[in-house]
Every structure is written in C-alpha cells, then in structure tokens.
C-alpha cells in the first residue's frame, strides 16, 4: 500500500491560489475521524498517485505524526486543462465494512481473435479494509470466440470476506464473432 506524505491545508489561501502554486487541495473524511480534515499535496504527487491508483484504492496518508489508512473516494479535474482540482479520501475503520470498486484489468487482449465486448470493468463490493481488492487481472490469451467471463469466474470475488454488490452471473467480458458484431452494430445504427 502506498504511503503519501500530506500537509494540513493552508486555510489562508483559496483553492484557486493553492492550485496556481502547484498544490492540490484534498479532504479526508469518515471512518473514526470526528471531523473531516482539509489537507494539501504537491500536484506532482497527486498526478503520480492517480496514475498508479484508482478510485477505491487503499492509500496511507502521513499527516504530521499520524498515519491514516484511506481509500480514494473521488477526484475532480479541470475541464479545460485536465489538471487535478481536488481529491477526497475516505478514512477506513479496520472494524467497519466499506463500499469500494475492484477494477478489472485485461491481459493479452491483443490476442483475442473475435470482438471483445467489455461489459463490467469495475465491480462494486463491500468488505473490511484488510480484505479490499484494488484490481483483478483476467488473462485473455487463448480464449476462443464465444467465451463469456462472469463475476463468478474470478476467484477473488468468490471469497466469503467480500460482499458483492452485483449478481455473480453479471458478465464482465464477452468474445463474439466478427460477423455477429458487424450485424449487431448495423442493427443499432438503424435504430
């Protein structure tokens, strides 16, 4: 799990002023915290964090003399230049289940001979912080046309420590024939 060093937010500067100085305003809330905490981090650190981690990823924040285990709850970017404007972190209580997302990563997708339909690439679930899943990897090498992979086909989601918030028969990916895909696309275009 990543550990990111953050500082308490400089309340004398507005968010726009912080961003101009290359600082991203952030917030930690929830868990066992009595109140939310306004924090800030360097823009480079925030970009690196969001490049490597996703929404729902567990992150340790080092704030002064304490370390707070959190998950990335959401982030916002500027519409015009795509710079990070804000990140929200949810503090995690080790004894309380938390809602999160597991991201599905596809390996060897270039070897698929048919059309790859990505149906559910983020699987919502609830678990204790120690049982959280950041990503699951599905290897597609050698998968024939007609292959359907559901949530139940991924071992990480069958753990009794995970409460799925989708049906186990929900389709994650489907590999279909190119002729079928062309006919389906033509049908959708006609509608």
TrEMBL record:
Residue span(s) of domain Large ribosomal subunit protein bL25 beta = 113-178
Looking up PANTHER family in the UniProt record yields:
RIBOSOMAL PROTEIN L25/GLN-TRNA SYNTHETASE, ANTI-CODON-BINDING DOMAIN-CONTAINING PROTEIN, RIBOSOMAL PROTEIN L25_GLN-TRNA SYNTHETASE, ANTI-CODON-BINDING DOMAIN-CONTAINING PROTEIN
Q: What CDD domains does its record include?
A: Ribosomal_L25_TL5_CTC (cd00495)
Q: Where is the Large ribosomal subunit protein bL25 L25 domain?
A: 4-89
Q: Under what name is this protein listed?
A: LSU ribosomal protein L25P
An annotated GO cellular component of this protein is: cytosolic large ribosomal subunit
Q: Name one Pfam family in it.
A: Ribosomal_L25p
Q: Tell me, what is one Gene Ontology molecular-function annotation carried by this entry? A: structural constituent of ribosome
In terms of domain of life, where is this protein from? Bacteria
- Keyword annotations for this protein? Ribonucleoprotein, Ribosomal protein, RNA-binding, rRNA-binding
Q: Which BP terms from GO are recorded?
A: translation
Does this UniProt record's set of keywords contain Nucleotide-binding? Answer: no
């Amino acid at each position: 799990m990543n550990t990111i060093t953050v500082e308490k937010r400089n309340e004398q500067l507005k968010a726009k002023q912080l961003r101009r100085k290359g600082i991203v305003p952030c917030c930690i809330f929830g868990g066992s915290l009595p109140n939310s905490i306004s924090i800030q981090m360097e823009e480079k650190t925030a970009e690196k964090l969001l490049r490597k981690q996703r929404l729902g990823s567990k992150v340790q924040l080092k704030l002064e003399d304490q370390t707070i285990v959190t998950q990335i709850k959401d982030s916002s970017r500027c519409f015009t230049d795509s710079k990070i404007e804000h990140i929200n972190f949810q503090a995690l209580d080790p004894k309380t289940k938390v809602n999160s997302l597991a991201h599905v990563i596809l390996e060897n997708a270039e070897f698929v001979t048919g059309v790859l339909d990505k149906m559910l690439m983020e699987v919502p679930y609830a678990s204790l912080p120690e049982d959280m899943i950041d990503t699951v990897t599905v290897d597609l090498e050698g998968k024939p046309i007609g292959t359907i992979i559901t949530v139940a086909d991924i071992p990480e989601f069958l753990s009794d420590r995970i409460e799925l918030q989708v049906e186990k028969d929900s389709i994650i990916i489907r590999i279909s024939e190119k002729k079928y895909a062309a006919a389906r696309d033509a049908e959708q275009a006609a509608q």
